[in-house]
Design brief:
Blueprint lengths: L2 H13 L2 H8 L3 H15 L4 E2 L6 E2 L1 H27 L5 E7 L1 H18 L3 E7 L2 H9 L5 E6 L6 E14 L22 E4 L4 H10 L13 E2 L2 H9 L4 E5 H5 L3 H4 L2 E3 L6 E9 L5 H14 L19
Parallel strand pairs: 3-4, 3-5, 7-8, 7-9
Antiparallel strand pairs: 1-2, 5-11, 6-9, 6-10, 6-11
Length: 313
């Protein structure tokens, strides 16, 4: 049994497809299949049910795959200990980020991170919360930045900052002349939302304690990015809510349509999350410090009005 065989085993489990697993390991499919077969012969069990499409681990295969993950994690931990003892950190670091955070936070911390860790190949992958959690469990990400709390047992959440929601309201909107708005003035049927799958959408729905009524709309409008929502709002299709860091990066003209929301300000908690295996913990801790130093200080104070990123309505 070799570490290479175990890595092939995990790749097949991750992809549930021998060809894609081989591609991810940069080997041919016959090479990978042969090594998996050798491992099965050595262990005396079938690890995968090849009659299923996609292929699935057998019951004993699931237990052995979990153990293989532990073994590879511990092997990687040895490399981390050696690097830390030499005060040299290098190699790949995969960071998942939810789409509603990427554009506002990555430009703030990236240069400083690269300067601090010039030998680390940072790979930033934009994913939904659901996909991030799945890939963290499979050790396919080292850490991630997303909205919390999620209360996942195997995930550690390290809060970074607390980001208020801001309202984008065009001048000709019924609330356009207000200097600020209250939570009670936000009508979910008048709010342009992100597509399903975005946790920011869920937080807005939880703020309004309601789901939009399709019967109340002539057109059901939802988008995958804030730029589109802002453009639709300017065309008279309603108002929208934006995260603070996104709002302050807008042009001066666009910011004239931004309205604060009165206390208690709806807020989302943004955290750096990782699994309890705690691999690459020194990089994770330094990344958290760098991100915190890159946002306005007032966002570092914990809020009493954090909205859950899980849709509760």
């Amino acid at each position: 049994m070799t570490l290479t065989q175990l890595s092939y085993l995990i790749a097949v489990d991750n992809h549930r497809h021998f060809a894609r697993a081989a591609e991810s390991c940069f080997v041919t499919q016959p090479t990978l299949s042969m090594q998996i077969q050798k491992l099965e012969e050595e262990l005396g069990v079938l690890l995968f049910d090849r009659s299923k499409h996609p292929v699935r681990p057998t019951s004993i295969g699931e237990k052995l795959i979990q153990q293989a993950r532990t073994i590879l994690n511990e092997a990687e931990r040895m490399q981390q200990i050696l690097q830390e003892s030499k005060n040299v950190l290098e190699g790949p670091f995969k960071l998942g980020i939810i789409p509603t955070v990427t554009s506002s936070i990555v430009p703030r911390f990236l240069r400083q991170f690269n300067k601090k860790f010039p030998k680390i190949q940072l790979q930033i992958i934009e994913l939904t919360t659901e996909m991030i959690l799945e890939r963290l469990q499979k050790d396919d990400l080292d850490a991630a930045i997303l909205a919390t709390p999620l209360d996942e047992r195997s995930i550690i959440e390290k809060p970074l900052y607390y980001e208020p929601f801001m309202a984008y309201i065009p001048a000709d909107h019924k609330l356009g002349k207000e200097s600020f708005i209250t939570n009670s003035e936000i009508d979910i049927d008048d709010v342009l939302l992100l597509n399903e799958g975005h946790c920011f959408r869920n937080s807005v729905l939880n703020l309004c304690n309601s789901s939009p009524s399709l019967s109340a709309k002539t057109v059901d409008l939802a988008s995958g990015n804030f730029d589109t929502l802002v453009k639709l709002a300017k065309k008279g299709y309603g108002m929208t809510l934006l995260p603070y860091l996104y709002a302050i990066d807008m042009s001066a003209e666009e910011q004239s349509f931004i309205k604060p929301i009165a206390d208690p300000k709806p807020t989302r908690e943004i955290s750096l999350v990782y699994t309890r295996a705690e691999l690459k913990i020194k990089v994770i801790e330094e990344l958290a410090r760098i991100i915190k130093s890159s946002v306005p200080e007032k966002l570092l104070t914990e809020s009493d009005q954090v909205l859950s990123p899980v849709h509760q309505v």
